Structure formats: structure tokens, C-alpha cells
């Protein structure tokens, strides 16, 4: 089996008329800000995508019922018995504000040394244009599609997919039946393997706040008066043990344990380990799980309670001897199958009251449930086999990722086998400065999607 080198991929990409056309489309997409959190550009980008798809014969629906328009683009096969592949993507991005370091304007696609840079080139606009390129190349070079192709593109993924379940409920009958749903994105790992994943963790985020007095108190009373800060810290500490185990009653009772195939996939393919994290992040504190099997089981299959940030008291120059009257914290818990955000929220409230922290106010901010697959569906196995012919180092097949997305929402609505893979790399820096994608990886993804379409002939 012969595999193309990075240089050969770059040559093919530059000589490919269709790929170059949609690369210019991507350039325009990157230039158009579409940020749900700031309510910027959502209608404009949805309309632009609708125009791009309609111009090449797709049946396009743009639904603007909610804050972020929902885009559906359907390419139909002339075969009445053709199966259907769905691509799930999103056109919204996170911001690229002054708190991040970019070499160039983040909303201007730039190319340097075989990589493209810009907000959304990996997460997730680049996947939209790469997959559309594959569809157009197949039609131009081979002819009519042997499989129906449907793109569903939302505009609020970076904000917990607000209203996605309403759109899916509305259009489920038009999207089904389907053979397979290909998720938004994925990466080639440090070994050069294409990571193919079948799920993601869920999440609940919530705020904790305490008000202990009408005003800050002179700290001379610190021996006899409780401060909001100490009260909040003690409340938070009551919820987690030193080894990371969550101490909230009922959390572990509901967890759906991984099956043998899911455990085996993680044991065979997962690369994450404590030493690697130490190198990447320069860790100075001990890791919570060091032994590999326990590390992987905890990382992929167990919930995690984390503090996103704490705010209280005086932080200015010098000192200000006070007992703060207020304290707050932003918290999150990553969820696994069996745990719903509302169930966890109720357990958190019950825990705090039971342990004497009734003065802590708990505010729900967002939540998504988790989804996991053992990757044994025939349509998924077909993708795995095809991917092995494009990546010299092979594939890494994992039943879930540790990150969060709306896979559960989509699966509940459509019930279609799902998997994620894409064109990113370990240093694509999604959500960070200089977000990037290798042009060779971009073109390899196009080729793989085109070959997937061909497999349905």
C-alpha cells in the first residue's frame, strides 16, 4: 500500500481546481465573524452557507426561528434505495479577542509553511468546506452520488448548542432514515494516527455564591466572625477528595460502566498519560492518577469536578485588612453516561444543605449530557477500514473523547450511529491563538470523504 507524503499532498491540493475554489470559500467564511456568545454575524454566515450550497444543487433550508439559524443542505442520489450520510457541523466560533496572541489577524485566513491559520479553520469551518469539496469532486469526476449526503450546520455549538434540540425535533423526519452521522471534527494524533472517536463527555456548569454580611468586615474580627471566602472554600472542599473523587452522594450510583469493547479500545489506542501531561503543561503539582489503567479509566469514563475560577475580596496593590462579605466561584462537572445535568444539579444542592452550607447559592448556567459508542456499527467499521488506507500510521479508535459537545442531543433525536474524525492536529490550538490546520491534512480529509462516498457505489 502506497501512502502520499506531505509534500505530495500539498502538490495535489494546489493543483486541484475544486479544492482551490472551496479554499477561497473558506477564506471568506473565516473573514465573516460568527460568534454566538457575542451575537455577531450568525444570520450573515448562515445565509452565505445557504448560498454556497444552493449554487451547487443542494436542497437548502435555513431556519431562523431561534437566535442561531439552522442550515440543512441535502444532496440527493438518483437511486431511490440510496442510504444517507449526515455531516454535523457548526459555523459559530469562539471569539478571538485581545487576550489571545495571534501572529496575524485571526479573521483573515493566512498560509505559512504548509499550514493555514485563522479562527475556525479547524473548529469548525474548515471541516465544512473540506467535506463539501469531497462531494463536489465526486460529482464532477465520477457522476451521480451513490448515497444521499445531508449537511446539518448549527450556529450555537460553542454556547452549549442552544436550541439545537428544537431544530432537530422539527426536522428529524426529513433527516431520517440515515446510515451514519459524521461528527464535526477530529485530529491526527502525535503518532500520526487518525483519531476516530465515538462520543464525548457531558457537562454541567454552575455558579456558587455566598453573601456573609452587608459590608466587608474589619479583619480584627477574623477569630470570631466567619468570612464569605472561608465559607465558600469549605463548601467547595466538601465536594471533592484530595485524589479527585467526588464526594457528592449519588453521583457514582448512576454512572453507566463501560463495556469490555470500550475498555479494550481505550487500552489499545489511548495515548494520554500522566508523564505526557507533565511535559505538555509543565505540571508542578502531582497528578491525581498516575498508573496508566486507572488514569485512562478515570479520564475517559468517570466524572470530574473542577473549579473554573474563584473571586473574593481585595486584589489591589498593598493590603486591605478585611473579611470579604461576598465570594463566588465558577464550577463545572464533566459528565459520563448515566448522569444528567439536572440530576447532578439537584445532588449538589442536596449535598451542600446536608453538610451545613445552606448559605451557598447554586445557580445552574448550562448543561449537556454525554454519549458513548463501542464503535461496532457496520457503517463505523467501514470508515475505520477506509481510513487505514489513507494514514500510514493507521488509526486510533476510541469510544469517547474527554471533551464535551452535543452528541447526546443529536443521538437522542436521530438515533443514528455516530463517529468523529477530522483534519486537525495535536497543535491545532482550537479556541486559542494561531488556530491552524496542515494543508496536507486538509486535503487528506477531502480524499477520505470522497472515498467514503465511493464505498456506497
Automatic annotation (TrEMBL):
GO terms for molecular function: metal ion binding; peptidase activity; succinyl-diaminopimelate desuccinylase activity. Keywords: Hydrolase, Metal-binding, Protease. GO terms for biological process: lysine biosynthetic process via diaminopimelate; proteolysis. GO terms for cellular component: cytosol. InterPro entries: Cyt/Met_Dipeptidase, Peptidase_M20, Peptidase_M20_dimer. Residues 199-358 form the Peptidase M20 dimerisation domain. PANTHER family: BETA-ALA-HIS DIPEPTIDASE, DI- AND TRIPEPTIDASE DUG2-RELATED. This is Peptidase dimerization domain protein. It comes from Streptococcus macacae NCTC 11558. The lineage of its organism: Bacteria, Bacillati, Bacillota, Bacilli, Lactobacillales.
Amino acid at each position: 500500500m502506497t501512502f502520499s507524503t506531505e509534500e505530495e499532498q500539498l502538490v495535489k491540493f494546489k493543483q486541484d481546481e475544486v479544492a482551490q475554489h472551496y479554499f477561497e470559500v473558506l477564506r471568506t467564511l473565516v473573514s465573516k465573524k460568527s460568534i454566538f456568545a457575542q451575537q455577531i454575524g450568525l444570520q450573515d454566515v448562515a445565509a452565505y452557507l445557504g448560498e454556497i450550497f444552493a449554487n451547487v444543487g443542494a436542497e437548502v433550508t435555513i431556519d431562523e426561528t431561534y437566535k442561531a439559524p439552522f442550515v440543512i443542505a441535502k444532496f440527493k442520489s438518483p437511486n431511490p434505495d440510496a442510504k444517507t450520510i449526515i455531516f454535523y457541523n457548526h459555523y459559530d466560533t469562539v471569539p478571538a479577542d485581545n487576550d489571545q496572541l495571534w501572529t496575524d489577524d485571526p479573521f483573515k485566513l493566512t498560509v505559512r509553511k504548509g499550514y493555514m491559520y485563522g479562527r475556525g479553520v479547524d473548529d469548525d469551518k474548515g471541516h465544512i468546506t473540506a467535506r463539501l469539496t469531497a462531494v463536489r469532486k465526486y460529482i464532477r469526476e465520477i457522476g451521480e452520488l451513490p448515497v444521499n449526503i445531508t449537511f446539518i450546520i448549527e450556529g450555537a455549538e460553542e454556547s452549549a448548542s442552544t436550541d439545537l434540540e428544537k431544530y432537530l425535533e422539527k426536522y428529524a423526519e426529513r433527516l431520517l432514515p440515515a446510515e451514519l452521522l459524521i461528527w464535526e471534527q477530529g485530529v491526527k494524533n502525535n503518532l500520526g494516527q487518525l483519531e476516530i472517536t465515538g462520543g464525548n463527555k457531558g457537562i454541567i456548569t454552575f455558579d456558587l455564591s455566598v453573601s456573609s454580611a452587608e459590608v466587608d468586615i474589619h479583619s480584627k474580627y477574623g477569630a470570631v466572625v466567619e468570612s464569605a471566602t472561608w465559607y465558600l472554600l469549605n463548601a467547595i472542599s466538601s465536594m471533592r477528595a484530595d485524589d479527585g473523587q467526588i464526594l457528592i452522594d449519588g453521583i457514582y450510583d448512576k454512572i453507566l460502566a463501560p463495556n469490555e469493547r470500550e475498555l479494550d479500545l481505550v487500552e489499545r489506542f489511548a495515548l494520554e498519560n500522566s508523564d505526557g501531561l507533565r511535559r505538555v503543561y509543565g505540571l508542578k503539582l502531582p497528578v491525581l492518577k498516575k498508573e496508566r489503567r486507572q488514569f485512562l479509566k478515570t479520564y475517559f469514563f468517570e466524572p470530574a469536578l473542577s473549579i473554573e475560577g474563584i473571586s473574593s475580596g481585595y486584589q489591589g496593590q498593598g493590603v486591605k485588612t478585611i473579611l470579604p462579605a461576598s465570594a463566588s466561584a465558577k464550577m463545572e462537572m464533566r459528565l459520563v453516561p448515566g448522569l444528567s445535568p439536572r440530576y447532578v444539579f439537584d445532588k449538589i444542592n442536596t449535598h451542600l444543605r446536608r453538610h451545613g452550607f445552606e448559605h451557598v447559592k447554586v445557580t445552574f448556567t448550562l448543561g449537556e449530557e454525554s454519549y458513548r459508542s463501542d464503535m461496532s456499527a457496520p457503517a463505523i467499521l467501514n470508515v475505520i477500514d477506509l481510513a487505514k488506507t489513507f494514514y500510514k500510521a493507521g488509526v486510533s479508535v476510541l469510544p469517547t473523547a474527554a471533551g464535551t459537545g452535543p452528541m447526546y442531543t443529536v443521538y437522542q433525536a436521530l438515533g443514528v450511529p455516530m463517529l468523529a474524525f477530522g483534519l486537525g492536529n495535536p497543535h491545532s490550538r482550537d479556541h486559542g491563538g494561531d488556530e491552524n490546520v496542515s494543508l496536507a491534512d486538509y486535503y487528506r480529509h477531502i480524499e477520505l470523504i470522497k472515498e467514503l462516498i465511493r464505498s456506497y457505489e
